[in-house]
Amino acid sequence: xxxxxxxAGSSSLKxxxxxxxxxxxxxxELDAPGAEIDRSELDAILGEEQDGIAAVVHRIVHxxxxxTSAVRIDDAVTEAIEQLTDLAPLQQPxxxxxxxxxxxxxxxxxxxxxxxxxxxxxxxxxxxxxxxPARWRRRWSVRRFGFHGLSHGWVARRxxxxxxxxxxxVRIVSCHLGAGASLCAIAGGRSVDxxxxxxxxxxxxxxxxxxTVDPGLLLWLIEHEEVDxxxxxxxxxxxxxxxxxxxxxxxxxxxxxASDDEDAQLxxxxxxxxxxxxxxxxxxxxxxxxVIAFTGGVGERSAEVRERTAADxxxxxxxxxxxxxxxxxxxxxxGADGATVRTVVVHAREDLEMVRLARPLLA
Length: 363
Hints:
The protein has 2 domains: 2-115, Nucleotidyltransferase, domain 5, CATH 3.30.420.40; 165-345, Nucleotidyltransferase, domain 5, CATH 3.30.420. It is built from 15 helices and 12 strands. By secondary structure, it is α/β, with parallel strands linked by helices. A 6-stranded mixed sheet has the order 3-2-1-4-6-5, with helices on both faces. A 6-stranded mixed sheet has the order 9-8-7-10-12-11, with helices on both faces. It is globular. It has helices at 39-49, 75-83, 92-105, 125-128, 134-140, 149-163, 215-224, 229-238, 241-246, 251-257, 262-286, 296-301, 303-310, 322-327, 350-362; strands at residues 2-8, 12-18, 24-31, 53-60, 71-72, 111-115, 171-177, 181-187, 190-194, 291-295, 332-333, 342-345. A hairpin with a 3-residue loop joins strand 7 (171-177) and strand 8 (181-187).
């Protein structure tokens, strides 16, 4: 039974056809830097792949409190997903556009939605509660949700296989580093803490997103500089992060420029500083650390980012082998012999995690 997975990320739209025994039968990636999707290109791909597709599984970034597991898509589910758009304005519109486009092309094929927030339903109240007025928390469900759950969920399953350990016995800091970026503290295969919060803006410095900033600063901009909510939201989502410091969110370009460009070097320094600090915080949430896993476009492809990140984490027991790190491609161990914390590169397979979650709904 072949399943088509549709993964709308921050800067691309990925489609995979997964056959029996999790065999990857086809894979496509479309550039999609904004909320719009090239319908003609998508239609051409669907025309190639639609024969034999038994179901379509969509990655949806935000499921709120309503969606805590995968669900069959119908009009009510689509409407509920749309109502959550304000909480993930950079990602949710693209996911909805892909959902509608595929549903129009394959109207008789069952659709299933998998949610990035669902993996973090295991967060404790201490981890998900904001110290805000109780009335706000009750009325508007103001809490930390966490994101990239499909990627972190795959890491939770794949790392024990790579390291030949039992899932219950390993504490992992999963580093999903791409255009969007987040960390997840995983113990016993479950999310214990994560860096993103109520929206995907919280946490690490990202390609165009600011990550965590002092809310007092935002209040100051509103009160003293009369920056309105629309401009503030656009700046935090689209004109901040690496792009705000270096003028581009492309880590490859920034690394190439860093030797003779002060802005590029500052962007890397800020990015790594926040990343290292948050890895240490995740290790504290776990009460110790056994494995660091790098995944996502930057995490998998940039040996330099991995090296810089690990450089000052020796106090946690992290030490990379330079040759292994430079040679690593996918699903590889890059830690030095004797390091007390193992370090691995994990190829992001959100598609397989989506298929795993969807199959019980198709039985």
